[in-house]
Predict the 3D structure of the following.
Amino acid sequence: MQAPGKEGRPILVIQPRRHHHCADCDRSPLRELVLVGGSPLCLDCADLGHLVFLPRGDTALTRRARAASSLSAVVVRFNRRRRRYERQGVFVEEAALAAAEAACLADAEARARRRVRDAERRAAEDVRFTAALAAEILRLFPGCPPARARDIAEHASVRGSGRVGRSAAGRALDEAAVTAAVRASVRHLDTEYDALLMARVPHNRARARVAAAIDAVMSAWAAGRADVSPAEPTPRLPQGPPCTAPGEGGTAHPQARRRHTDAPST
């Protein structure tokens, strides 16, 4: 076996969701297994039984333990919702883990200070970027209220959110990305889009129904006007009693009405 991180791919240990038995010693059920030639092996039969498990969570400790261990393995588990394998931790030699823990303890204070400095630096960067994004929104849409522009910028630029403000185009203040952030805000706050979603209208149909209202707001803002009076208001949700199935009272099925109308008079 090769030492992971030095040559080739890392050794993978799988935490299975179903019961498996070892193809060599017939041990079952296996909490962890290694696939060798398509057959599951327990850690002992795969010559990994002497390693200790280090859960994920401490990046510095994991990195140092793997670097000090001549043999290690990455532990993964399948996430059904995301449909992918995700890391759960690593198996490393016990001596390597002890050495890594000692090294982490020795410079724990320095790493803590570095984390504080990094957090402060990222916070300052976020403040500058949010201000720049708000300024770009006002440049493209001078009719947008300044407070609204700040709200849009703050919402779109939340770190780790995956929103348009955190994309590469958003960080570069690309016009299309900035416009997309404004459009998303108008869709949710200035139209009945959310109400349509609550009424179980498919999102693509809901977007089509509010498109005219969104365009009216954005056109007014782009022209420097804050007051918006859309020519075609967003269609209201249908009111009235819920639909009933044929034969359960209420309005008869259209085909039933047609058959009744077409029936010859006697």
